């Protein structure tokens, strides 16, 4: 399989968000002339508000409101000066009060995003390293990536994985002065905690380790003086820690706060911290409101507010634990996540709850993996006991309805989140459909297969038998693949759906750009299986084209698709695969909305190239139909060199030739990290030579050398499709004889000679193939991952 096109992450996110917007659960506008926090107006209806991050309700406190109004009257709506020159008169009191809360000096920032952009490049030096928890907030990751331009290494560990973190610390300890680990105190989606005490102990074990916490969701509702979750765990901020809190969210005002006990570092950050220096300062109203909130935090009243919220959190927990609702993380924070699995179920569930009178947030990609979509519920002091009870009752009633309407079940949700299931799997097969799943093509009727999935490529019946024999019983695990063949028929034995499925070991960076692959390949010199994972895929790494047959006119096609999804989930679990890939779909494919709703996101693959031929055509007539520019290219770069070359078609190779052609293939593989796959075993080329369906277009330099300088490995599909599946090249002669272009031409010439109707030219090199008359089509794949770790790590490695 060729590598996907890059720089499409924003397109992917836009795809997902657009779907959610269309379903009416994202980018909404609140309505109404007032807002109390208890209810929120949506589409002319008042809904009980379970989506706020103002957990203590201070944003509605009359004291904060009056302070903000008074400040506007005295100082205006803004104070239009850089804080580096002169601060609003109200700033001094705010800084004093917040410093008193923490017992340490603070820096007030416009918001946490600008704060991270100001602090991280100032605190982290060129000789340091950064390690990110892969679920740390986007604003921290974005600010850290800026340091790539200063050659500061940025690495990542799986969420809260202390063993992995310790291994990374050891790896950097001899080359880096300080090692910064960056994490959230409370994570915003699931409401789970960072292991703060354990991290502090790790920093004592490794003095190079410095800790950077973003605790904006831990603020106010917990801790002495409401200083947050991290401070509640460590009591005192040591000099190897930086802590971010917020003056927004639960604090009830605006802005954010950096706390730093290291005087030297504090002065460096405060003196010149990028956006902290050049950005506008907080508006007078925000400063005044934050100062009033800080005063409340410094009185016993803050503990009364915390305890009031704690009772509501405990009540919600008690109610949920009496149900079978899939609560993803059991904790005592105000943030809860009820899993729905697929986005489609999530949309349905959220809309049902809104109709019932409750507003909740939908958690979806990229904040969570696509198949880990769910509902984020936040509990605040605005929520009354009877409303909390009514929400849980509504969720318990509507989630099964949402699951049923979207053709899934609770067991699949639990499986998606790797939770212990409380229910038995439901049989989602339509009573009028029968499913057959085989692990060998030998058990499948040849005609049925060849007239459905096997029409093109090398995935006809004989091609799959060849692949099964080749990719089994090999020494290296990456060359041993599992295959499944799924057939779904109706009661009249009419085929509704057929699919080719495989599981094999992939390099994780096969979906990354060459920058990332080069970095990873250096590490694979000592650890060949570094960053590799089992992947379940439609098709396999050796096939391209349509791996899914679907009778789009059949009334039960959606039921067949639902069974395919359930089968993939089970095979993913059984094969211990970490990702599922549905490959090679057209851009306007009618399955797009279905796959996306099932928890897959779309990525763009390299363009696919093919040629349709006329029966009994000639190569001369074919070339004459090319454009004048293409014919000029043909005469200059191909025809002019043909007489200098010895071109032969071989159906078998001797041992020496097999060694040569494998070497030439490996040249191409190593030279193009965009096709960054494992090397195929020698057995593949030996089997090609023995198999009557394979032949080799061989190019040598005429009369001067016995060495092969180019080879095309071609498969003859029984449905009259010619498939140049692999290519091998000697790069020393590539430019002199335009070997690749010559091989493309000879492939077309051979297919015409054999009277084939179609040539599958595969992916990549679309520019060269188009010159010789190929039709180029955009192709997409749909990806579903068990978590976002690999995707986010690739994002780091792809940055220059």
UniProtKB/TrEMBL annotation:
Q: Which GO terms describe its molecular function?
A: pyridoxal phosphate binding; transaminase activity
Query: Looking at the keywords, is Nucleus present?
Result: no
Domain (Aminotransferase class I/classII large): give its ranges.
49-388
Checking SUPFAM superfamilies in the record gives: Acyl-CoA N-acyltransferases (Nat), PLP-dependent transferases
Is the keyword Kinase assigned to this protein? no
The UniProt keywords, alphabetically, are: Aminotransferase, Pyridoxal phosphate, Transferase
Which cofactors does this protein require? pyridoxal 5'-phosphate
| InterPro entries according to UniProt | Acyl_CoA_acyltransferase (IPR016181), Aminotransferase_I/II_large (IPR004839), AON_synthase_class-II (IPR050087), PyrdxlP-dep_Trfase (IPR015424), PyrdxlP-dep_Trfase_major (IPR015421), PyrdxlP-dep_Trfase_small (IPR015422)
User: Belongs to which family?
Assistant: Belongs to the class-II pyridoxal-phosphate-dependent aminotransferase family. BioF subfamily.
In Swiss-Prot or TrEMBL terms, this protein is called Aminotransferase class I/II-fold pyridoxal phosphate-dependent enzyme
């Amino acid at each position: 399989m060729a590598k996907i096109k890059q720089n499409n992450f924003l397109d992917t996110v836009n795809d997902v968000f657009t779907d959610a917007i269309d379903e009416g659960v994202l980018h909404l506008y609140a309505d109404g002339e007032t807002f109390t926090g208890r209810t929120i107006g949506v589409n002319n209806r008042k809904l009980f508000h379970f989506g706020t991050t103002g957990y203590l309700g201070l944003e509605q406190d009359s004291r904060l409101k009056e302070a903000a109004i008074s400040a506007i009257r005295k100082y205006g709506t803004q104070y239009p000066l850089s804080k580096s020159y002169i601060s609003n008169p109200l700033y001094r009191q705010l800084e004093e009060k917040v410093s008193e809360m923490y017992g340490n000096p603070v820096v007030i920032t416009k918001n946490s995003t600008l704060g991270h952009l100001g602090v991280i490049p100032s605190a982290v030096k060129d000789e340091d390293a950064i390690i990110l928890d892969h679920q740390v907030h986007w604003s921290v990751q974005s600010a850290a990536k800026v340091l790539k331009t200063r050659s500061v290494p940025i690495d990542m560990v799986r969420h809260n994985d202390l063993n992995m973190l310790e291994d990374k610390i050891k790896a950097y300890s001899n080359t880096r002065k300080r090692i910064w680990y960056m994490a959230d105190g409370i994570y915003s989606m699931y409401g789970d905690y960072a292991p703060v005490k354990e991290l502090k102990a790790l920093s004592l074990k490794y003095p190079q380790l410095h800790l950077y916490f973003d605790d904006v969701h831990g603020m106010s509702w917990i801790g002495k003086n409401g200083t947050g979750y991290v401070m509640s765990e460590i009591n005192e901020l040591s000099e190897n820690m930086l802590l971010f809190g917020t003056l927004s969210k639960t604090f009830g005002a605006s802005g954010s706060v950096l706390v730093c006990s290291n005087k030297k570092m504090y002065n460096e950050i405060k003196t010149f911290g990028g956006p902290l220096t050049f950005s506008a300062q907080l508006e007078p109203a925000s400063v005044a409101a934050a100062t009033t909130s800080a005063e409340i935090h410094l009185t016993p009243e803050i503990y009364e507010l915390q305890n009031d919220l704690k009772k509501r959190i405990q009540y919600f927990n008690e109610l949920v634990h009496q149900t079978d609702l899939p609560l993803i993380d059991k904790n005592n924070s105000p943030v809860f996540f009820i899993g729905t699995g697929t986005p489609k179920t999530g949309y349905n569930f959220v809309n049902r709850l809104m109709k019932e009178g409750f507003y909740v947030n939908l958690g979806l990609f990229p904040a969570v993996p696509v198949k880990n979509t769910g509902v984020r519920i936040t509990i605040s002091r605005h929520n009354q006991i009877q409303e909390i009870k009514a929400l849980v009752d509504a969720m318990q009633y509507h989630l099964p309805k949402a699951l049923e309407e979207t053709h899934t079940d609770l067991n699949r949700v639990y499986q998606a989140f790797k939770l212990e299931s409380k229910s038995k799997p439901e049989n989602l097969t339509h009573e009028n459909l029968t499913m057959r799943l085989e692990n060998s093509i030998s058990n499948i009727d040849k005609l049925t297969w060849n007239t459905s999935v096997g029409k093109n490529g090398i995935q006809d019946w004989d091609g799959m038998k060849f692949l099964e024999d080749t990719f089994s019983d090999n020494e290296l695990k990456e060359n041993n693949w599992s295959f499944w063949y799924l057939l779904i028929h109706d009661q009249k034995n009419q085929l509704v759906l057929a699919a080719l499925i495989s599981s094999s070991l992939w390099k994780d960076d096969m979906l990354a750009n060459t920058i990332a692959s080069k970095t990873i390949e250096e590490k694979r010199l000592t650890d060949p299986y570094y960053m590799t994972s089992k992947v379940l895929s439609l098709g396999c790494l050796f096939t391209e084209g349509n791996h899914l047959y679907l009778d789009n006119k059949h009334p039960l096609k959606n039921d067949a698709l639902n069974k395919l999804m359930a089968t993939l989930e089970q095979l993913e679990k059984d094969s211990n695969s970490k990702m599922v890939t549905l490959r090679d779909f057209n851009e306007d494919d009618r399955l797009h909305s279905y796959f996306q709703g099932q928890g897959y996101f779309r990525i763009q693959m390299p363009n696919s190239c093919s040629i349709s031929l006329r029966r009994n055509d000639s190569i001369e007539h074919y070339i004459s139909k090319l454009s004048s520019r293409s014919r000029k290219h043909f005469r200059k770069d191909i025809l002019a060199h043909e007489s200098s070359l010895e071109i032969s078609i071989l159906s078998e190779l001797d041992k020496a030739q097999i060694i040569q052609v494998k070497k030439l293939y490996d040249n191409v593989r190593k030279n193009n990290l965009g096709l960054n796959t494992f090397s195929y075993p020698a057995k593949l080329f030996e089997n090609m030579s023995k198999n009557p369906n394979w032949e080799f277009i061989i190019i040598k330099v005429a009369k001067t050398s016995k060495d092969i300088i180019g080879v095309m490995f071609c498969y003859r599909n029984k449905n009259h499709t010619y498939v140049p599946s692999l290519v091998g090249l000697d790069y020393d002669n590539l430019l002199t004889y335009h070997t690749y272009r010559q091989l493309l031409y000879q492939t077309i010439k051979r297919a015409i000679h054999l009277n084939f109707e179609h040539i599958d030219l595969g992916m990549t090199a679309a520019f060269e193939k188009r010159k010789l008359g190929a039709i180029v089509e955009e192709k997409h794949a749909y990806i579903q991952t068990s978590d976002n770790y690999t995707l986010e790590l690739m994002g780091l490695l792809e940055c220059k």
